[in-house]
């Protein structure tokens, strides 16, 4: 089952359709956590997430990972290919953190012997529950489609782990979303940003992601700006 892409305003982005099969993703300055129970706005957050996502999509495209990214369409906007999105979040975990430490008897911060891939069903009313392959097939997503998304996710992990390690950053875990384009290809969509990933400084283990907001660890914009600087060298 693939859901038709809907034009909407979500918690962190607006999706604006164009007439030529493309879409504008506009990143907002809003921040939410704990299923929307915690909310705030941070000036410049949308710009940073858009620019960071653009950098990372380009890195992946250069390594032959197909994404919906086409280009930057403004300070906080990306132009992307329109997809029919799967109602799934594919999460890859390299280090024990977040909800994983609540489910496994392993201390936070331990590197996993191999990446763990998890599937979550995208439904706010259900709290985006974790599901397995059997659940996904009941929802109409074939085993072949699931395996392809997991294969791409692990390739993304391999590329980005090395990319961030070269910049003194640990890629702890991250969420990806996928969709089908008009040619029937399963490709990477949505965003790759500090809103959807956990990044730790390799030396200090300082968070450079939305956990700064979730757990009141400091200034969110400073953390995102530091990440942007390490990726681009720009202030």
Automatic annotation (TrEMBL):
One of its GO terms (biological process) is cobalamin biosynthetic process. Pathway: Purine metabolism; IMP biosynthesis via de novo pathway; 5-amino-1-(5-phospho-D-ribosyl)imidazole-4-carboxamide from 5-amino-1-(5-phospho-D-ribosyl)imidazole-4-carboxylate: step 1/2. One of its GO terms (molecular function) is ATP binding. Its EC number is 6.3.2.6. It comes from the Archaea. Keywords: ATP-binding, Ligase, Nucleotide-binding, Purine biosynthesis. It catalyses: 5-amino-1-(5-phospho-D-ribosyl)imidazole-4-carboxylate + L-aspartate + ATP = (2S)-2-[5-amino-1-(5-phospho-beta-D-ribosyl)imidazole-4-carboxamido]succinate + ADP + phosphate + 2 H(+). Pfam families: SAICAR_synt. Residues 7-230 form the SAICAR synthetase/ADE2 N-terminal domain. The keyword Transport does not apply. Coiled coil: none annotated. SUPFAM superfamilies: SAICAR synthase-like (SSF56104). The keyword ATP-binding applies. PROSITE patterns: SAICAR_SYNTHETASE_1, SAICAR_SYNTHETASE_2. Belongs to the SAICAR synthetase family. This is Phosphoribosylaminoimidazole-succinocarboxamide synthase.
């Amino acid at each position: 089952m693939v859901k038709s892409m809907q034009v909407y305003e979500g918690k962190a982005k607006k999706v604006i359709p164009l007439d030529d099969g493309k879409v504008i993703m506009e990143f907002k300055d809003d921040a939410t956590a704990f299923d929307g129970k915690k909310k705030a706005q941070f000036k410049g957050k949308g710009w940073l997430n858009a620019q960071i996502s653009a950098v990372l999509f380009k890195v992946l495209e250069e390594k032959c990972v197909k994404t919906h990214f086409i280009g930057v369409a403004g300070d906080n906007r990306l132009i992307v290919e329109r997809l029919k999105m799967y109602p799934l979040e594919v999460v890859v975990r390299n280090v024990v953190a977040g909800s994983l430490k609540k489910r496994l008897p392993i201390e936070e911060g331990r590197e996993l012997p191999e990446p763990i891939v998890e599937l979550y069903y995208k439904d706010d009313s259900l709290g985006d529950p974790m599901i397995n392959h059997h659940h996904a097939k009941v929802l109409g997503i074939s085993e072949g489609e699931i395996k392809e998304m997991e294969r791409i996710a692990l390739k993304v992990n391999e590329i980005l782990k090395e990319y961030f390690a070269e910049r003194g950053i640990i890629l702890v875990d991250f969420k990806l979303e996928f969709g089908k384009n008009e040619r029937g290809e399963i490709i990477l969509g949505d965003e790759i940003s500090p809103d959807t990933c956990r990044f730790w400084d390799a030396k200090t283990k300082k968070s450079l992601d939305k956990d700064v907001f979730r757990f009141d660890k400091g200034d969110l914009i400073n953390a995102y700006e530091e990440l942007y600087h390490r990726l681009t060298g720009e202030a």
